[in-house]
Amino acid sequence: MWLNPVITSGLKIVANSYCRSYFWTTPCISNLLGRISNKFNNYSSSAISDDSDHGQNEGRLTRPVKFHPELISHLERTSLVGFGSEEAVLRLEEAIKFASVLNDVNTAGVKPMDSVLENETLYLREDETSETSRKDILSNAAITDEDYFVAPPGNIPLEASKLAQDLVKTRA
Amino acid sequence: MRLLQVLKQTPQIALGQFVRGQHYIRRKEGWESAIGLEVHAQIATKSKLFSPAPCNYGAPVNTQVALLDAATPGTLPVLNRKSVEAAVLTGLALSCRINPVSTFDRKHYFYADLPAGYQITQQRNPIASNGKLDFIVYTPSCHPAPYNHSCNIIQLQLEQDSGKSLHDEVDQRSLIDLNRAGIALMEIVFEPNLRDGEEASALIKELTLILQRIQTCDCKMEEGSLRVDANISVNRIGEPLGVRTEIKNLSSIRSIVNSIEYEVVRQIDVLEKGGEVINETRSFDSSRKETVPMRDKEMKQDYRFMPEPNLPPIRLLYEPNASSSSGPNILHVQRKMKELPEVTRNRLVKKYGIRMQSAIVIVSSPGLLEYFTAVMSFKNGESAVKVTNVLQGALMEILNINKIDYSQCPIKPKDVADIVSFLESSRINTAQSEIVLKKLLDDDARTPEQIIKEEGLEQISEDSEIEKMCLEVLKNNAKLVEGYKRNPSKFQKKILGTLDAAGKGKLNMKKASEIMLNLLKKD
User: Which residues of B96-114 are buried (b: 16+ CB within 10 A; e: fewer)?
Assistant: First the structure.
C-alpha cells in the first residue's frame, strides 16, 4: 500500500513543525535523516538501475523505480527470501521511491553515522582463555557425526528465480 | 589530525651488488603480469579475537569453540587487546600509517563454516594502511644476482577466521569443525606490484622473517597460520591492468610460485586465442600443478558490507606518558619492536665485510644468525668470509643430512672458530676440516685440537715431503706423464687428482699443485 506523495510531503511538514516546537530542532532532524540516507550511499548496490545520484544534486526520484530481472534474482539469492509475485516487487519499488525523499536532505560535509555508540571507545579484554564445552556447542545441532557438525555439501547454486524469468518478458 | 608514520631506518646497501629493478623471468613477447597478494596471518595470541576460547593447533574437533564462535543467539563479541597490539606492531614494522580510530564491519556470505552468516572484519577503516615492504629477490637457480624490489601495502586489518569444512563426496555432505572459527587474523593487502612467482615468494619469505622476529605470528604455513591468496592478471605492455583471477588458500611457498606461473601462462594463452579471462576464484591443484575454478564460489558475491553495530571504534593513544592501563598506546607498542631482517643484513655486511648473498642466507636460515654471531665472537670479528664458507659449506651439508638446523647444532661455536683458525693457518685443509666436523657432530667430546693431533689430521705442508710424494707419483704413473706432455691441460687435473689420492687427502694441495707443476715443467 503505497502512500500518496502529497500525503508524505504533508506528513513531513507536519512532523517538522511538531518537532520544532517540542523536541528537536529542524537542523538536527535533517542531520539525522541525512546520516541515515548516507548509509545507503556507502553500501548501496550499484545494481539498482535508476541512475539516481543519491542525493548529491537531484533529490527524490520522480521517475518510477523499475527493477531489472537480474536484480530481482540477485535480491532473492542474497536474502534467501522469495518475492512471491509481481505485486511484491511493485511494493518494494514503491517503498524505495517513497524512501527516496531522504535524498532531499543536503548532507554535504556531514559524516555518516554508524550507530548511536560511535563516540564510545571499544572495551578490550585481556588475552585469557576460558573453558569451552563441546557438549554444549553440539547440543543444538540436529545431526552430528563423531563430534563434527553435518551440513549439506558446498554451496549449491540456487535454481534461477522463476519470478525473474517470468518478468523478463514484461520488463527487460 | 596528522596520522603517525614511523620512519624506518633506511638501509645502507653497498652499491654495485644489486641491479635495481632488474627482472629475470621472461614473459612471452609483449606481455606483462601483475600479481597482488592478500596474506592472512594468524595472530599469536592465547585466545581468539572476540571470544575467550583457546586456539591451539591440532586440538580435538570442536573443543575450542565458545558460544560466540558457534553464533549462539545472545552472545556478543569482545575484542582481545593483545590482537590489537600485535596488529599495531606489525603495522609499524611494515611502515604503515596507524589509524588512531578504526572500526569493524560485517561481511555477509553464506557458507556452512561461517555460522553467523557474516565475518567481522575492518573494511572501511582498518587499523593500519599505506605501508611498504622492501625485500630482496634472489633464487639462486633463477637469478644471477640478488635485486631489490618493494611492494606497497594497501591496508592491514583485523578479522575473524572461519571454521574448517571437510567435504565428504561419498555421502554428499560437509563436516564442520569450528575450532578455527573466530581466530584472530591480520589480513595484509598488497598492491599488485609483483611481476612473477619468484618475487611473490621472496615477499612472503621476508614477511615471514619480519613477523617471526616481532613475534606476532609464527608463520607456519603447514599449520595454517599463514595463508596467501594471489590476484593475478596479465596485460600487453603499455595497456592497463587486465581482468584478474583470484587463487585462494595457497599454503606453501612452492605452491605460490607454481600457481602464479601456471595462471599467468594460462591467461596469456586464453587472451592470445581471442578469449576473455573471467573474473573468478580458482584453487591450485598441487599434484597436477594446475589452477582449477572453485565450484563453490562460482557466483559473484555481494558481501553487503555494513558497520558492525555491536562494536564501537577502537581508539589508540599516542601519548608518551600514558599508563599501560589505559587504551592501547602506539608508543608502548613501538618499544617492543625488534631489529628487522633488512637492518640485520645490512649490519652484517657492514660489520663483517661479507657478501650480501651470505648475509641473506645467514638471516633466513633458522638459528644461523645466533650461531654465526657466537662463532664470530670467538674470532674477534675477523675472517668472517672464511667462517661463512665453513658454516654454509660442509657444516650446512652435514646438518641437512641429519635434518637439524643451526639452533640444534651440537657443535660448540668455539670449536668451529678453532677449525676456521686452523684452516686459515693452513694447518688443516678443507677435507680434513670436514672430518673433524663430522666427528664433533657425532658427539665426540674432544676439542678440534685434540682430534687433529690424535687422528693425525694435520696437513703436510713441508716442501721436501711434498716433493718426495710428487716424484713418487710421477714414477708410478708414466702414462699420465706421457699424456701430460702431449696435452697438458687435459691431464693436469688427472695428475693432481692422483697426487691427492696418493697423499690420502693430507697434502696441502695448493703447495703440492705448485710443486707438481714445476716438476712437470722441468721434465
Answer: bbbbbebbbbbbbbebbbb
Q: B426 and B281: one domain? A: no
Q: In which domain, by residue range, is B436 found?
A: 341-454
Whether residue B46 is found in the same domain as residue B70: yes
Pick from B168, B173, B316 the residue to mutate for testing the A interface (most A CBs within 10 Å): B173
- At B385-443, the pLDDT tens digits run 888 888 888 778 878 887 887 888 888 888 888 888 888 887 777 777 788 888 887 77
Looking at the structure, tell me whether residues B268 and B349 fall in a common domain: no
- Closest by Cβ to B174, choosing from A119, A124, A152: A152
* pLDDT > 50? residue A17: no
8 Å CB contact between A71 and A96: no
DSSP conformational letter for B299:
S
B210 pLDDT exceeds 90? Answer: yes
Output the nine-digit C-alpha cell for B360.
641473506
Q: Do A127 and B178 touch (CB under 8 A)?
A: no
Q: Do B245 and B393 lie in a common domain?
A: no
What is the least distance, in Å, from the CA of A78 to any CA of chain B?
Answer: 7
pLDDT tens digits for B59-70? 999 999 999 999
DSSP codes of every residue in B406-435? GGG--S-HHHHHHHHHHHHTTSS-HHHHHH
Q: Which of B52, B298, B305 sits opposite A43 (nearest CB)?
A: B305
CB contact under 8 A, A122 and B112: no
Residues of A in contact with B47 (CB under 8 A): 127-130
Helix (H) or strand (E) holding B284: strand B281-285
- H helix or E strand, kind and range, residue B120: strand B118-121
**Is pLDDT at A49 greater than 70 in this prediction?**
no
Shortest CA gap A139–chain B (Å): 11
For residue B24, name the pLDDT band (cuts at 50, 70, 90): low
- For an interface test with A, give the residue of B49, B88, B111, B174 to mutate (most A CBs within 10 A): B174
What type of residue is B397? E
Residue-wise pLDDT tens digits, B458-496: 777 777 777 777 777 777 777 777 777 777 777 777 777
Interface ipTM above 0.85:
no
For residues B441 and B409, give the distance between their C-alpha atoms in angstroms, rounded to a whole number: 8
Domain count, chain B: 3
Do residue B246 and residue B141 come from a single domain?
yes
Interface of A with B (CB under 8 A): 42-43, 45, 74, 77-78, 80, 114-115, 117-130, 132, 134, 136-138, 140, 145-155, 157
| pLDDT tens digits for range B150-199 | 999 999 999 999 999 998 888 889 999 999 999 999 999 999 999 999 99
